[in-house]
């Protein structure tokens, strides 16, 4: 039996066990999960732990390969292996607990940031949610992928506390204090007793998450959001030289976003054709595009939090620090900035869960691959990464659209490579550019913090040497010896 025939037979067996409502084969639905490199053969959507247990047992018996996804309803989680069966947990979407006094939540994997926000607002709970920029993303998936947001709770891996997973053999495991019956601190103390293992279940194919606990931020007494624009391309380095100490000393405590003019233009729904003809845009053209929209070549978004008097004191220092950057403009009232961009950017830093003005992928073609390197929060290093990435993109005929989020001591970069989904040549060009970027960045010492489905093998090559990959393989064989779960 071929792999495809085996997968189809497994899908039929899953439908027989779970019912027709739990299985989807339509081309329209499958397209939500597809990438330029892979299309699933079907989707299985268990509604609870009982159905999940039955699904794993049935799939394992049939020799199937599953790719677990927390919530694929909005097309935000994709497959990396062609003809895989997607195990989509979107119907497991209960908010199990929100504790206002201790500031945490416990959710099933299908819960989105928008749904959690509605729950909190509906009960009048005074807690903020940190989200990754798309309100329809899964809360659990943001932990699994180790994503970042824009408030002081931007590090979603760090803010996770307490996890429940189902292993390939159907056994349920609770981590941390949740492993102890009647624990009072499952969502309060991350580590429990003995080895801490939560990280094994992020960016991996070792198990399926069924419950995730997350710390939430109490609404602060006061906050002040601001924007800093820098007019020239070379202004990136001094901007980050100022930002570094402010982050290190937790003066500017939020996940500070820095978007270049093209990224912000795309975020506002502008198209490449609005600014340029053929070929990668020169620095002067990028600068002009920013000026046309009242933006800089680089645009930084930060926030201060605390007691009102403290925020006022901090603001004077921060304004003076960024004001020292050549060509910088510090904006606190949104004057001259598109109200849609100002409202959304400021809201992301103050607990407002809302859709961005539009999706960056619309810049040119409607879909995009991303490359996701990490650098120090250091002007020289950030500029070095930017310059090599800009030049590599230009060699492949792409503009560099980028957003960087500075969290603690590192800056997570997201570089977009738009393509036209129906154009195979366009898709292939973006893939080739992504692979070249990943290789060049690794050679320069910049590793990836996340990878798109289908590009894992490219990233794996940059981490392949040494014992880490051997350790990963040993854990995989121990937890999933038959390979039930697929890698993205």
Automatic annotation (TrEMBL):
Biological process according to GO: lactate catabolic process
- The residues covered by the FAD-binding PCMH-type domain are 36-211
Q: Which residues form the signal peptide?
A: none
Q: Does the keyword Lyase apply?
A: no
Q: Which UniProt keywords apply?
A: FAD, Flavoprotein
Q: Matching PANTHER family, A to Z?
A: ARYL-ALCOHOL OXIDASE VANILLYL-ALCOHOL OXIDASE (AFU_ORTHOLOGUE AFUA_3G09500)-RELATED, D-LACTATE DEHYDROGENASE
Please give the name of this protein.
Answer: FAD-binding oxidoreductase
Q: Which organism is it from?
A: Sphingobium terrigena
**Source lineage:** Bacteria, Pseudomonadati, Pseudomonadota, Alphaproteobacteria, Sphingomonadales
């Amino acid at each position: 039996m071929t792999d495809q025939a085996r997968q189809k037979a497994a899908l039929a067996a899953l439908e027989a066990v779970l019912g027709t409502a739990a299985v989807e084969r339509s081309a329209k639905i499958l397209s939500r999960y597809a990438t330029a490199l892979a299309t699933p053969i079907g989707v299985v959507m268990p509604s609870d732990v009982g159905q999940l247990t039955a699904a794993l047992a049935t799939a394992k018996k049939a020799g199937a390969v599953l790719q677990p996804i927390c919530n694929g309803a909005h097309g935000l989680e994709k497959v990396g292996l062609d003809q895989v069966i997607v195990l989509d947990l979107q119907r497991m979407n209960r908010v199990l607990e929100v504790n206002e006094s201790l500031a945490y939540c416990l959710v099933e994997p299908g819960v989105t940031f928008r749904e959690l926000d509605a729950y909190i607002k509906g009960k009048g709970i005074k807690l903020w949610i940190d989200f990754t920029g798309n309100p329809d993303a899964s809360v659990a998936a943001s932990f699994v992928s180790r994503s970042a947001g824009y408030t002081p709770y931007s590090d979603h891996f760090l803010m996770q506390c307490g996890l429940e997973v189902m292993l390939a053999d159907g056994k349920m495991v609770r981590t941390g204090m949740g492993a102890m019956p009647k624990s009072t601190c499952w969502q309060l103390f991350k580590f429990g007793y003995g080895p801490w293992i939560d990280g094994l279940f992020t960016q991996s194919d070792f198990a399926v998450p069924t419950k995730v606990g997350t710390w939430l931020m109490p609404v602060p007494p006061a906050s002040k959001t601001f924007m800093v624009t820098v007019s020239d391309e070379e202004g990136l380095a001094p901007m980050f030289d100022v930002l570094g100490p402010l982050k290190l000393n937790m003066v500017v405590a939020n996940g500070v976003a820095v978007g270049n003019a093209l990224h912000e233009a795309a975020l506002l729904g502008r198209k490449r054709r609005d600014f340029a003809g053929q070929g990668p845009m020169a620095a002067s053209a990028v600068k002009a595009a920013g000026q046309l929209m009242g933006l800089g070549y680089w645009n930084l978004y930060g926030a201060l939090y605390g007691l009102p008097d403290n925020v006022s004191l901090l603001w004077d220092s921060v304004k003076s620090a960024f004001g020292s950057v050549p060509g910088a403009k510090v904006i606190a009232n949104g004057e001259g900035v598109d109200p849609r961009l100002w409202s959304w950017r400021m809201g992301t830093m103050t607990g407002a869960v809302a859709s961005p003005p539009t999706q960056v992928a619309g810049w040119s073609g409607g879909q995009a691959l991303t490359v996701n390197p990490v650098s120090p929060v250091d002007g020289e290093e950030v500029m070095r990464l930017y310059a090599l990435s800009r030049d590599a993109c230009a060699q492949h005929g792409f503009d560099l659209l980028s957003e960087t989020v500075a969290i603690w001591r590192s800056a997570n970069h997201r570089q977009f490579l738009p393509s036209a989904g129906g154009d195979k040549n366009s898709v292939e060009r973006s893939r080739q550019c992504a692979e070249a970027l990943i290789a060049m960045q690794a050679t320069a010492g910049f590793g990836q913090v996340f990878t798109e489905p289908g590009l894992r093998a490219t990233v794996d090559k940059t981490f392949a040497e040494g014992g880490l990959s051997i350790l990963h393989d040993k854990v995989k064989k121990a937890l999933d010896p038959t390979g039930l779960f697929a890698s993205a």
